[in-house]
Design brief:
The structure holds two protein chains of two kinds. By secondary structure, chain A is an alpha+beta fold. Chain A contains six helices and five strands. The longest helix of chain A is centred in the C-terminal third of the chain and has 16 residues. Chain B has 16 helices and 33 strands. Classes of the chains: A alpha+beta, B alpha+beta. Chain B: This is Xanthine dehydrogenase.
Chain lengths: 177, 748
Amino acid sequence: MGIDLTAEAARRRTPTVRGPSEQPVVLTVNGTHHAVALEPRVSLLDALRDRLGLTGSKKGCDQGTCGACTVWVDGRRVLACLTLAIACEGRQVTTIEGVATDGEPHPMQRAFIEHDAFQCGYCTPGQIMSAIALIEEGNAETDEDIAEFMSGNICRCAAYPGIRQAIKDVRDARERP
Amino acid sequence: MNTAIGRPVDRVDGHAKVTGGARYTAEISLPGLTYAAVVGARIPSGRVESVDASRALSAGGVLAVLTHENLPKIAGQPRLLPSLLGAAAPGQSFFPMQDAAVHYAGQPVALVVAESHEQAQYAASLVDVAYRREPSITAIDEGRDRVYEAQRLFGGLMPGRDERGDVGTALAEAPVRIEAGYRFAANHHNALEPPATTAVWEDGRLTLYDSTMGIRATQLTVAHLLGLPLSHVRVITHFVGGGFGSKAMTWPHVTLAAMAARHVGRPVRLALTRAQTYTSNGHREEQEQRISLGATRDGRLTAIRHHKLSITSHFDDWAEPATGVSSQLYDVEHYEGVHSLIHGNTMTPTFTRGPGETLGVFVLETAMDELAYELGVDPVELRLRNHARTDPRGNPWSSDGLAECLRLGAERFGWHGRDPRPRARRDGDWLIGTGMAAAAYPVAFFMPEQRARARVYEDGSAVVQTGTQEFGTGVLTVATQVAADALGLPLESVRFEAGDTDLPNTSAAVGSAGAGMVSAAVHAAATALRDRLVAMAVTDADSPLHGADPAAVEVADGRMRLRDRPETGETYADLMIRRRLADAEEVGSWTPPPLTTPHGLLTFGAQFAEVAVDPGLGLIRVRRMTGVFAPGRVLNPKLARSQLMGGMVWGLSQALLEGNEMDTRHGRWGASNLGEYLVPVNADIPEITVEFVEVEDDVVPLGIKGVGEIGQVGAAAAVANAVFHATGRRLRRLPLAAELVMDPPASS
């Protein structure tokens, strides 16, 4: 993608100073708009958990090393603990609470239960957000790819073989006509 | 009737966990909630000279800054005892912020409470603490002139020394001797959910939402520390994001949260940061072990000497007990196990998965591999030849299964026909090796009476309750299975509730004892209720079962019926509606057999691993692992397999990845995050095979010996023995370092 060098684009790129006090922010999460007051330093993870009561995204390290907070922003997986909430204005945020359809669990959620791909469950929402995205990204073609591209999500209970099997099942079910 | 137990049913809490619906401690929302942040000491030894809290206090949203100058004194310090005992269980017998002394880096020296999480964290960074540093000892190498032999461990519960026969003479006379020393770096649990506590006071009564493996232990410990009647402390824990020992004891932050909430008059949530977990909930201590094996030329062990040296805190004689397996697994007449300690400037270490025995068995089973090479005997055969038929007191095992595990494991893994010569197998740049180890872990029995309650409603559904907690073991699922079978109800008609000290009490779920003791209590309660309802039916003139012998009645799908005439009977619901009973309830309890039971108590298993080593790059990759275990009755093979596999991964990780080094200049851990302290990720873990050997055991509760620890024991030794087979290098330091397997060998 090329860089837009017009004057209008330059004006749009000029940063606006907001904060340090609380700012009105509209977050769009799982298709719903939420008007909240947030300091600019509040992470997307803390905004989801503490302000919106969406506690499915987990805080394992708060420093981008464990993957438990994985959510999607405009369809891409990101670490919510390293993302500022205010930077997500105008974007679509999807969390584990938003992957079911009409109350029906996502096939990946069902596959995780079937393959016992978790124990304590704390990393599970992040694992599932990565797992679904992995297939969309085309990074679930081989066993090696799955292992590699799931390696940003730590499971201390070590359910890794079950996680891989769940992903393969969902991938194969999609490919079947 | 036995329909749910033994079936691989899905987790009953699976839906909550995959949808984000499961609420963990730091996710409980309460009106008026405030947030606490801990300030940890930056020095390992010395004093707090002064605390300037003025900048923190003037920062936005700050409600209070607590230090040793204004925090109330605790009412009393309980003894350090393992939480399984059912008494107060502080992680260490030192409570911070009572005076200016600093005993370890990270020790809480101030606590900030603010309106928001961000405000508390920011204000914590503004608390200005001035220290006077004094000399410290934070690693074994700094304290070698201060070694002492531990008389007792765990608050006096266990002896530090275990001996029989004359080990010195036996070793001197042994035709074959193997002797070696080992070094092990400290390990941190790194449960993915950092410990958190939310404290709420109401009318002098305290409610704690706590991330713990033992709500009862939290209740007892906090009540003791604050001088509160037990009835005034309630602990609630629905879901816990992993424990592995880090949440087995009650650490100071729990009580600090309660003290802070009392101070500000509002609910307080205290969630530790990832970095703080390295200095707040114990760790597996840095340690050295030394083993000597004496054997005959035909491969019979005659003597074992097994010594451990480790570093503990200034206030507790804590050591993971490392000799419980080496003293029992093999039939050896002369034995000496000794634990030595150095007092140092760390917090008190604590239980870490497979406490003690996982490293004790690493040492034993590495030495056994060496002995096998020395004698030219197959390693599996050497174990079979020496496996003890009884415990050292001469008591038969409550159940055994080691030989079956070894044989089945060898078969499944494809052990037979292995060329034992090191460096004999190659795959491109990779040297390939296979290794094995025996596994055993003590069955712990020192818990008090365990209780549960069962209730059947007139619609025929049941709720069964006990005060345990779910941290990944699957206890909610297996307790539901046990209750369903005992009541004769379908699984979906039974709801199991836990996670509240207002429910009937059970001990902390530690030491692989959780499933057994909870199941035993649930079984007792459910059976008592079923018996009561059956008794009601056979004495009810309006019941089709009137006059029947209760022993001739069975219950299936909620219907009581004659065993030999199933058409005669009625449902619980029919009986209860007719008798105008909205519900019926019974409490049941289970008390463990006395510690003097004339049985040896070990769980057995066998581990096999294949590794590939790139001697050019120093890479070690585990290609496959097979574990075979005999854990007694398996309530749910799907969940048990997961837990055993998780243990095997912990063993792999202990061998290849995990270790923290102390920076002795500053007396602080070198690593305090998951970027620097390595834990396995998906790509590190190969396919793993877990198999069971069935053994019947009528000594342990419901025949259950537990699966929490045994999966880890022996796994690291199997990996290291495979590395020897691949490279010819005997590795005596964990985690295994790349330079040790590189060609040419590093001179170290």
